Amino acid sequence: MKRIIPTVLSGMVSVVLIARAAEDEANLPPPEETEYWTPVPAVVRTPAGGVPSDAIVLFDGKSLDAWEPVNPGSKGWVIEDGAMVVVPKQGQIRTKQSFGDVQLHVEWRSPAGDTEKGQGRGNSGVFLMGRYEFQVLDSYENPTYVNGQAGSIYKQHPPLVNATRPPGEWQTYDIVFIAPRFSQDGKLLSPARLTGFHNGVLVQYDTVLRGATTYRGQPKYTPHAPRLPIELQDHSDLVAFRNIWVREIKLPARE
Question: 103: which strand partners?
């Protein structure tokens, strides 16, 4: 009997637990109550190594038609071997189209053999909305102030890590940028935010920008249009860019 009693009790406990579980499940709402079927997300084709089907191609190695010089009268940049290359002293270039919230893909290459140091080596930048700079720099074994190295939000936030490849090799930036919001009277409602990957490595995560990029002094916000061009910087270094595309992000309304 001593061996049978535990088995019987165990069986009784199991029956009670099963009954309680069935009762609990019966009191739950139907699963359909937490399912919704619309709106259906748009289909985006993503070919391996290619460009998403809903992306706007800004540079495919063949034409600069999507770009224009920022400085009137500038000759702009040139195309060499399928890449757009900075022409020193010609100033920045910008997209003819304006953007707000975006996912941006940019590939860039700093020149090999440059003997300069710090900010003088392979310096350029990606300016979201022409105001907010994601720094381009040859940061391979090249010390400088950390909020000015590659992958930084210039003069604001250093990257989480230094993922820079050697000069002369192509690098990739994948940036998710959420534009700031302003009220009709110019008050800042929400700051800009940025998540960035350098060569596939996370270097900025949902980083809050403190304002527009400035070289001297503290950044600050001034009201601007909800959509503005993307700019690439001429810092007099022969930085090259290729395979640039952008996806406009349509965020769902916040509840």
Answer: 176, 247
Q: Which residues contact 233 (CB under 8 A, 6 or more apart)?
A: 92, 123, 124, 125, 126, 127, 133, 136
Interatomic CA distance for residues 229 and 76, integer angstroms: 16
First-last CA distance in the chain:
64
In terms of DSSP H, where are the helices of the chain? 4-27
Burial of 133 (0-12, 13-18, 19+ CB in 10 A): buried
* 2-to-11, 14, 42 alpha-carbon distances in Å: 15, 19, 66
Examine the domain organization and report whether 181 and 235 are in the same domain. yes
Per residue in 45-72, pLDDT (tens digit) is: 999 989 999 999 999 999 999 999 999 8
Indicate whether 122 and 194 sit together in one domain: yes
Position 42 in a domain: no
Number of domains in the chain: 2
213 within some domain: yes
119 shares its domain with 8 = no
> Residue 168 burial (CB < 10 Å; 0-12/13-18/19+)?
middle
The answer on 177 and 88 residing in a single domain is: yes
Helix/strand/coil for 80 = strand
Residue 82 and residue 29 share a domain? no
pLDDT mean over 26-55: 91
* Single pTM value for the model: 0.88
> Which range marks the domain in which residue 225 is found?
56-248
For residue 241, the surrounding DSSP H or E stretch is strand 240-248
The C-alpha atoms of residue 210 and residue 221 are separated, in whole angstroms, by: 7
pLDDT over 90 at 161, yes or no: yes
